[in-house]
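Case study 2.
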Amino acid sequence: MVIHNLGLKNSILNQFILELRDVTIQKDAMRFRKNIERIGEILSYELSKTLDYEIKTVQTPLGTKEISVPKNALVLCSILRAGLPLHQGLLNYFDTAENGFISAYRDHQNDDDFEIVVKYLASPSLEGKTLILADPMLATGKTLENTFTVMKRHGMPEQVHIVSVIGSEQGISYIKNVFPENTHLWIAAVDEKLNDKSYIIPGLGDAGDLSFGVKL
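Prediction:
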């Protein structure tokens, strides 16, 4: 797996991460969603540099011009519900991509153990395409593993890109072993550990709740 940790470099991206983490600023749900969307745009721009390109000729009012443009058949797929603002950021840049959505949640068997349950998938064929899988919080990595297993029923993509906002070192190590070797991970920040309930520390809290309100 190729890991692109954009938070290691100085850029405006780190301002958006700071605001997502800040316990006062993150109470503004609209701003929280917008910051995730903007991070998705930045990650999209960097990701676009690694795509395959072809030359196209465009007719202008005064002549023609050859321009190099991406040629990949893209499918953007987000993990509901927390992935929706990140998906919008990706879609702002990859506006001609096909789209997929998949549900995944933690089914807690007891206070210590949980299972990742996937119950819904709406996706086009992935066969031979470039899959961009968006999940803002990469904690244990099991959600990404389970969703990718289900998605492969729609075909095997030629390329896989994972886009996340914050991940744990443990989760990143885990997905290295379950995704194809040439998978790319695009991430804005990496934190050192998980707590005893498998939440990222220091992280930012529950991205879904902060974006859309507390669920039952």
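The helical segments are 13-21, 29-48, 84-93, 142-151, 169-176, 207-212.
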